[in-house]
């Protein structure tokens, strides 16, 4: 009578992929929560911008359509900021820690770890919208139908993708100090030129032409269209998809380059 001996399988390999991804997500979320200043900055800045720069403008706040569009614009900035700082400065900071090197030597593949980063950034993007929604409900005349509200919730995930990839490209290719500076230098010009802080209707012609080729403008137009029902630029979706493809290539190159530098 013969018996079959099974080779020992490392414990991490027995866990489902989704379980590992959730474990990384929870760990990275808790790491962020332990730094209250990071949480406050991520969640309050867009809300404060709405409170101090938009709410005092009575003409805008009295118009439900204009109020909704203004909140949608700042919501776009909240998504951009959460994704780029989480995956830009955050990834670079994690790479500088000895624990990150230890995690990368474990037998589990890098897929769950990267998925955890993406889910963590997406979670913070949703949380950053909470103050905006509360201020909008309490202090403005903005309105959303249930269908548009569901569309906006789904759109957040779609809009977050290119800025997550941009953040990863920065975070995996630079040191902590450089990544923080580059993230700030990229985020705010993209936000201003994308019509996130002021409506693109007030842009001069040359700036409007440049703006329509940017991922921030495409994201802004799509979110405003979903939340208000006002028809946006027909080029918005193709521009966002094109930037997603370009930034995906950059992010993959940055991840592979980082692995080659540290483990060759």
From TrEMBL:
Keyword Membrane part of the UniProt annotation: yes
Alphabetical UniProt keywords: Antibiotic resistance, Membrane, Transmembrane, Transmembrane helix
Domain (ABC-2 type transporter transmembrane) ranges: 22-224
Protein's UniProt keywords contain Transmembrane helix: yes
Domain of life: Bacteria
Stretches that traverse the bilayer: 35-55, 123-144, 150-172, 179-198, 235-255
Topology term for the membrane: Multi-pass membrane protein
Main location (coarse class): membrane
Subcellular location: Membrane
Pfam families assigned to the protein according to its UniProt record, in alphabetical order: ABC2_membrane
Protein's name in the database: ABC transporter permease
The species this protein was found in: Cellulomonas wangleii
Taxonomic lineage: Bacteria, Bacillati, Actinomycetota, Actinomycetes, Micrococcales
């Amino acid at each position: 009578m013969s018996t079959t001996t099974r080779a020992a399988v490392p414990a991490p390999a027995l866990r489902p992929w989704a379980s590992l991804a959730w474990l990384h997500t929870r760990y990275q979320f808790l790491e962020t929560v332990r730094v209250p200043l990071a949480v406050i900055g991520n969640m309050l800045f867009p809300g404060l911008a709405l409170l101090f720069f938009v709410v005092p403008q009575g003409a805008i706040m009295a118009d439900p359509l204009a109020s909704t569009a203004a909140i949608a614009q700042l919501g776009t900035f909240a998504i951009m900021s959460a994704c780029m700082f989480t995956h830009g400065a955050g990834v670079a900071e994690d790479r500088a820690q000895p624990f990150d090197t230890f995690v990368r030597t474990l037998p589990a593949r890098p897929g769950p770890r990267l998925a955890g980063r993406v889910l963590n950034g997406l979670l913070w993007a949703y949380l950053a919208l909470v103050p905006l929604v509360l201020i909008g409900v309490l202090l403005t005349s903005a309105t959303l139908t249930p269908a548009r509200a569901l569309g906006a919730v789904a759109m957040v995930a779609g809009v977050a993708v290119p800025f997550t990839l941009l953040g990863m490209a920065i975070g995996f290719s630079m040191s902590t100090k450089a990544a923080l500076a580059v993230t700030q230098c990229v985020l705010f010009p993209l936000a201003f030129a994308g019509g996130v802080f002021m409506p693109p209707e007030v842009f001069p012609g040359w700036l409007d032409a440049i703006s329509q080729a940017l991922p921030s403008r495409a994201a802004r137009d799509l979110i405003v269209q979903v939340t208000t029902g006002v028809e946006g630029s027909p080029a918005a979706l193709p521009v966002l998809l094109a930037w997603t493809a370009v930034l995906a290539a950059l992010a993959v190159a940055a991840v592979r380059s980082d692995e080659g530098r540290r483990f060759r």
